[in-house]
## 1
Amino acid sequence: GLVIYNQGQYNLVFADDDDTRQEKLALLRKLLDNLYLNLQPVIQDLQSPTSSPAYDTFFHDETSKPFLTALFTNITAGAVTYPVRDPPQFWVRLSTTAAPSLWSISRRGQMSAAGEDGVLQDVYDRCTSAATITAFNIFTPEDPHPIIVLCPFFYDTTTTLVFGDIPPASVNGSPASNCLVANPTTNRFRRRVTRPSPVGFELIEYRMWILLEELGHKYYNVATGLDGIDTYNVNAAKRLFPEKALANGPSYVYYAARNCKSFPQSTRSGNRDEFRKLLEDDSPASVPEDDDDPADAAVSGETFVASRVEIDATDVVLGT
C-alpha cells in the first residue's frame, strides 16, 4: 500500500512498509521549505527592469522572463499540473489537486512504467540501474501524470558526492564557498573538483537543487507539452540559445544560485557565433580545469518519456 502526505499542494508518496519514511518525510519538508525561500529572490530578479549577470549568462534574452517567472512561481506554489480527470487518480482522491507527486521509491512493485517500446519496467530497477540516479521526472505525453520519482540514492547519506542541505534564504541559497567561479582568461567557469563529471555538476548535486531541476522539468512539460533537456556542463549550458535554455533543467539551477558573483562575459543576443568568438582562443590543454569535454557537454536522459504508467494503488491512505 501507499501513504500520501501533503506539503502545501505537493503530494509526498511513500510505500507503507518503508520504515524510514518519517525521516524521509522530514527531509522532504525541509527541502521544499528551503526551496520556497530560495526562489523568492529569483522571482524578484525576474521581475526587475534590469537583467542580472546570472540571468544574462544563462538565458540571454529578456523575452524569456515571463515564462521563467511563471515556472518558478508554479514551483513555489505547487501549482496544479494537469486537470483532474474522472474518475480521479489515487493522488487526487486524497488531495485537492493534481499537483506534482514526489514519489519515494524504496522497493520493487510500487510503480512500473513503459517507454516508447511499450515494455513495462519496474521503476525501482530503473532507479538502481546506475549508482548515480537520484531522481527523475516521468513525462507521459499521451496520458499525463504529475509524478517525479525520488530514488533510494536521493536519500543516501553515505555517498561521497556532495548532497548537502542548503541553508534557507537568509544566506541566499548555496554557501559562497560552493559558487561556480569564472576564469577570466578563458571566459569559462572553472572546474572545482577533480573527479570526472561535467563542470558545474558539484552544484547540481545538492538535494534541494535536484528537486528544483526535476520540478522545472515537470512544469516545462506542462507549459509546452514537450520533453526538456539535461545539459549539465555549465559551460555548455551558458551557450544554449534562449529557447534551448528554457528547456534545460540544469539551467534553472545554475541561474537560481544567483548569489554567486563570478560570471563569464555574456552576449544578450544568444548568437552562437558570438559565443564561439568569445571562446576561440581557449586552449583546453593549458586550462584543463575548464575543459568542455564533448562527452559530458550534453548529459541527457534523466526524464523518462513513458507511454504508460502502472501504479500499485490498492491500499492508499492519507498520512498525518
## 2
Amino acid sequence: MGHALVNIIDAGIGKECSYAKIREPFRIYMGDVHCKHLIFGGSSDNGYARLLGPYSGKGAFRECITMIGGPPFAPELARRASNFKTTSFVNLFRNTKIEALPAFSMPPPPGLRSLKTVNGSSISYASQAAAPAPMPDTQRTRR
C-alpha cells in the first residue's frame, strides 16, 4: 500500500470520462468547509475552463484555487488563469505537450493478404478471419 490519500483511477475510455472523474471531486471539495485549498493541474485542456468558471469571480472560492502550469494553458484556461493564483513545478512536470504518435497498423502476414479459393476467386484476410472455424471430421474410420 502506498499512501492512504493517494488514488490511481482508471477513468475509462474517452475524453469526457476523465473530465467527470475530476469534476465531481472538485465540486465536492470546493463545498467542504474543511478543504482550505485546491491545487488544480489541468492546464492543457479547454474543457476545464467550464469547471473553473463558477469559481473565477471575486470571493472566497477564488482564493482557494491555485492552477498548476505545465504545458502552456489552453486558450480558455489562460483567460481564467488571471483570476486565480498560478504556480509551476518545472522540475516535476513537463512544460510541453506530449505529441500524439501517428497511428500504427500492422499488415497481415504475407501469406494471408490474398488467398485463392478453389474456384479462383480471391478472399481477403478480414473475410478469412471472420469465417467460422472448420468442423472436425468425425467420420474417420478406424484401422
## 3
Amino acid sequence: MAHKLYTDETPASVKDAKGLHLITQSTPNGQKVQIMLEELADLYGTTWDTTKINISTNEQKKDWFLRIDPNGRIPVLVDNTKSPPFAVMETSAELLYLEKEYDKNNAFGFKDDLERSEALQWLFFWHGSGAPYQGMFPERQMNHFNRAAPEKLPYAITRFTNETLRVFGVLEIRLSGKYTGEPRDYLAGSGKGKFSVADIGTWPWVRRWEMSGIKKEDMDALPHVLKWIDRIAERPAVQRGIGEKYAQ
C-alpha cells in the first residue's frame, strides 16, 4: 500500500516524486536502467527524476530503502503514475517493466514471440551467468578476489576469471555466428539482431572487462564482443546513461 512505501525517513526527492523515479548509483547495474531511460527519452520524450545514493555508506540497507526494495540493492525504480506507487527491483525486471509500460513501439523489445523469447534468454543469461561472476563490487565474485579480498587466493581468482571468460566466450559464439554462419550486431532478433533490452542488460558489465582484471590478450580472442562493445558505446543515450549526469 502507498502509505507503507514511504515514511518520514524517506528522502524528500523520493517520496515527493510524481512520475517515474530512479534510485541509483552509476555502477554497471545502475547504468543498465539509466541507459534504458535515456533511450526512452530520445525516442518518446520520457521523463523521470533521479535520486543518487552512495552504496558504500549502506544507504541501501536503511529501512526507508528496504521498504521499496527488500533486497537492498540499487537501482530501484518507482512508478508514481500508478496508484499506489509501484516499485520494481532487480535490473532485468526493471528493464522489462520499462519496455512494457513505456516502449509502446517495442523499439527495445519484440512483437514476435520467438524474438521476444530470444531477448529474454540473453537477458537472463547475463543476469544469472555473467554478472554474478564478473562483479565489480565486493559482494560479487571475480573482483572480490581480484581487488577486495584481504589476501590473494590464486585458486579463487583463477576460478572466477575463467568462468567470466567462459561467459564472454558464449557472447562471442552468439555474435560471431560461429554455428549459424551469420555474424550479428546485437544479441537478439532476426538477422543481425536489434539493439534491445538484452544488450542494455549485458553491455555495462562487459565493457568494464579491463577493470575486472581480464587481460587484453584474452579479449583479443573475442573480436566480435569487442566490436559489440564499441558499437553500443557510440549511442548518444548510452553515453549519457554512463556519463556525468549520474556522477556523484
## 4
Amino acid sequence: MHLFLLSLLLQYVAPALAAPATFDASSMSINQLNDSLSSLFSDDVIASNFPTIFNLTTTPQNDYINYRIPNTPTLLRVSLYPTKPISKAAMQVSILRTQQAIREYMSGHYGIADTTLSHDDNPWKSDPAWKGCFIGVTGFPIESYKLTYQMVANVLDGLWWFLFREGRYMEAIFEVQEDGIGTVGVGKVSKARP
C-alpha cells in the first residue's frame, strides 16, 4: 500500500514528459484493428471460452494518437470517442483502483511482473463494483500474445497520464506496443461494462 501511495505522489511531483512517439509501419491502423477485433470476437470465439471485453461495432471519431508512456518501453496507439463522455470522477476511481489491483497482485506474486498474463487474468479488467468507467486490456494477437503484468501496469499509467491528467474524459480504444516486440495487446475504456 505504501508503494502505491508513493507512486501516486511521484505522479504528481515528477513531470510527465512523453518521449517522442514512434511509428511502426507494419502496425495496423485503428480502423483495421477495429475490423480485426470484430471478427475475432465473433460468437464462435466467445463460445470457445475466449474472454471478450470489446464491443467495437462503432468507428472512432478520429484516427489514432501515439502516446509513449514515460519511462517505459510501452507505446499506446489511442483512438478517442469524444461523443461518448465518461465522468471525471468515475474515470479517476477506475484507473486508480485498477492500478492498485495490479500492483498489489504483482507484489503478492514474486517474479510475476515479467510473465504473460495467465488465462484467468486475460483480459485484465477494472473491478465491476466501480460503475461509470470500465477498463479492459487483453493480449493480442490471440494466437501468440506476449502481454505481461508489468505491461498492463504500464498501460494503466499511460491511461492515467494520457486520458485523465489531460482531461480526456471519454471512451477510447487502444493498441499496446512494446519496444522490440511490436503489438502485444489491445484495450478499451468505456462508460459501461460490455
